[in-house]
C-alpha cells in the first residue's frame, strides 16, 4: 500500500501532467473510472501501472477484473496518494499510467477511410478532447492532430475524450501540410470548416470520402490552410449568435457527414 | 474612480455570484467585453451599472459608446476592484450589473413558435449556457428552463451563452410539467432527446413545430418526463463513444431541426 504522497514514484506520476515529462518518459496518465475502464477494455497492452484506492476498487470490480485479466500491475494507494498523482481536484480513486496510443499517419489512413478529422492549431484541451469524442461518436476513421496543436496526452484532453482516445486511430506530430497531403493521396476531399466560408454546410456534398479540417477555437483556420482545402464550409447561423464553439461546429459537421454517408446502411 | 476592493459597493457586486444574493437584489452580473457588448446592444435598458477599468475602456470604445448612447451609469474602477467584483480569474476589465431578462411563459410562446428548447434538471452551468447559445445559433424561438435546473444568471451560465442570453426569450422558474403543457397548448410537438429512445434522430419528422426536451447531463430525463413527451429521440452513435455530452446532443438535434425547417427559405 502506497501511503506517502511525497514518494518519488508519486511525484513521477504527477509530473506526467507536464508535456516535457510525458515526452521524456513516454508515458501519460488516465484518471477516473471512465477513462481507466476504456483503456483497459480497448488498449490494455498500453497500461503500465494502475493505482487504485482500495475503497474505490471494491466498488469498481469490473475495472479490477479487466486489469487482472490483462496482467496489469495494480498498486493500492491511500486517497492522499491518488490525489497527489492527479491533475484534477477529483481523481476518483483510479489513475492509470499509459503508453502512447497514437499511430503512424500511413497506418491511420490505410483501409480506404471515408471520414477523417484534421485538427490544426487547436489549443484548448476541452475542445480538442470533445472533437475526438465527436469523431468517435460518428464512427470516423481517424483523427489527425497537427504538430501545432495541444498535446493529446494533456490530462484535460484525455478527460474530455471520455475514453474515445482509445477507440479510434489518432495521429500526432505531423505538420498540417503533411496531413492534408496524406488525406488527398488516399482520395479524401478536404473540407475546411470555417466561419469565413461562403458555402453552407447544408449545400455541401458529404457523400464522397472527406476530411473535415478544423482550426483554432478563437481565430479559425490560417488563410494558407483554408486555401489549401478543396472547399471552405460554414455552419449556418440562423439567429443572433456570433458563432459556435469549435466542439459544437465539429459535432454538427461530423453528424451532417455521418447521417448522409450512413443513409441506407 | 473606485479603488478600494473592500468597499461595500464592490462586495455587493461580488455577492451576485451567489444565487441567494441575486434573488434578493434582483440583479446579476455580465463580465467581459463580449457579454457586456451584447447586453448593451440587445437589452441596454436592463443594465443598471457598468464598471470599467479605464485602460480597457480606452480599447473598447464601441462598448463605452453604446453605454453612453443608452445613458448607462459608467463607473471607472481600478483593475483590483474589477477583479474583486468578478467570478472569474479573468474579468477582462468590464463588469455590468444587470436586471433579469427572463420573460413570462405566455410571452415566450406567443407568435406561433416553431422551434423551442426545454431544459429540465440541467445542473452544469457550462452545458446550460452552451445549449442557450446553440438555440440562438439555430434561431430557436425560446428556451424554457425548468425550476429544477441551474440558475440562468449563474455567472458561468451567463459566460457560456456568449451573449445569447440577451438574444432570445428565456423563461425560468416553472415546473417541467407546466412547460410541457404550455408547449402542447401552442401546438408544439414535444421531442424528448434521450439516449434511451428507440427512435433515431434521422428518422424523426422535424418539419412540424416542436420543442426539444433535454434533461440532466449525467442521468438524462426522468421517466415521467420522457413518458409525457410525444416522442423519445436518440442521437445515433456510430462508433464506440458511450454518449454525447448534453451540449453536443442539443446542438445536433437543433441543427437537424433548423436545417429541415429552413430548407427552401
TrEMBL record, chains A, B:
Keywords: Methyltransferase, Transferase. Pfam families: SpoU_methylase, SpoU_sub_bind. InterPro entries: Alpha/beta_knot_MTases, Ribosomal_eL30-like_sf, rRNA_Methyltransferase, SpoU_MeTrfase, SpoU_subst-bd, tRNA_m1G_MTases_N. Residues 29-104 form the RNA 2-O ribose methyltransferase substrate binding domain. The keyword Methyltransferase applies. Gene3D superfamilies: 3.30.1330.30, 3.40.1280.10. One of its GO terms (molecular function) is methyltransferase activity. GO terms for biological process: methylation. Transmembrane segments: none annotated. Belongs to the class IV-like SAM-binding methyltransferase superfamily. RNA methyltransferase TrmH family. This is RNA methyltransferase. It comes from Luteipulveratus flavus. The lineage of its organism: Bacteria, Bacillati, Actinomycetota, Actinomycetes, Micrococcales.
